[in-house]
Amino acid sequence: MAQETGFTIWLTGMLGAGKTTLAGYIEARLRQVGRKVEILDEDDLQDDLWKEVEGGTKEERITIARRLGFVADALTRNGVATLVACASPDKQARDENRRRIQRYIEVYVDCPTDELIKRDSTGKYKKALAGEIPNFVGITEPYQPPTSAEVTVHTNTEDVEASGLKIFQSLLDLSFMTTEELKVITGTKMKPQPKAPKKGAKGAKPAKAAKPAKAAAKPAKKKGKK
Predict the structure, then answer these.
(1) 53 and 60 Cβ atoms separated by less than 8 Å
(2) Are 174 and 107 in contact (CB under 8 A)?
(3) Which stretches of 101-220 are DSSP H helices?
């Protein structure tokens, strides 16, 4: 039964996009219905999981995501709802974790860079723009946006409740949670949404155009009298 109740919600996005805030919101609501929950936040786990890794290079960032993925997989297999808040800007690392973790939802926490700079109370974005912080994701290092995330939230236009509702809908659609649980959390009876057709799926072949009718045969010429 433990294997059927655990799942991982992987929150990816740039610094300041709102991953930690959203993870905390989801955690509190999952606990309302008695779920076992753990948050793995990359900002809190460096000393325990990758003390020797600075995270300044692509290889180091992939290492961080892999280690978080290893822990998330173990928790998921033991019935824990696991929320990972990790920038994980590299598609390679995210794809590896998707293959590793059987019950997995990827959430792209999207926010425009201009808004992130406005929000930033640490001044890191401004320092990166000034060249004072090398290897800064989103400024001097690329962030590769997900192309197949189960959920995309836009924290510059949505409040945390609206973003959370998208995630709960996905959990229901994938049968990771029940309608009864989500009624307690949201106060409404949610219904699973039909699956969208896969990209590239073949549709019905268009009907062939009718061939134009052959021209009527010309009347035979009457033979003249001799």
Answers:
(1) yes
(2) no
(3) 113-119, 124-129, 160-173, 179-186
What mean pLDDT do residues 44-65 have? Answer: 73
Contact 90, 61 (CB under 8 A): yes
How far is residue 89's CA from residue 37's CA, in Å, rounded to a whole number? 24
Can you give the pLDDT at residue 206?
Answer: 39
Question: Rounded to an integer, what distance in angstroms lies between the CA atom of residue 81 and that of residue 35?
Answer: 7
Containing structural domain, residue 143? 2-186
Using DSSP, state whether 154 is helix, strand or coil. strand
Cβ pair 81, 37 in contact under 8 A: yes
Helix axes 58-77, 91-100, angle to 10 degrees: 20
Query: Residue 180 maps to which CATH number?
Result: 3.40.50.300
Strand partners, 9: 83, 105
Number of independent structural domains in the chain: 1
200 has pLDDT over 70 = no
To the question of pTM greater than 0.70 for the whole model, the response is: yes
Judged against a pLDDT cut of 70, whether residue 32 lies above it is answered with yes
Other CB atoms within a 10 A radius of the CB of residue 54 amount to 12
State the catalytic residues: 88
pLDDT of 2 above 60: no
| Rg (alpha carbons) of the chain, rounded to whole number | 27
- Token reading at 111: 């926010």
197 belongs to a structural domain: no
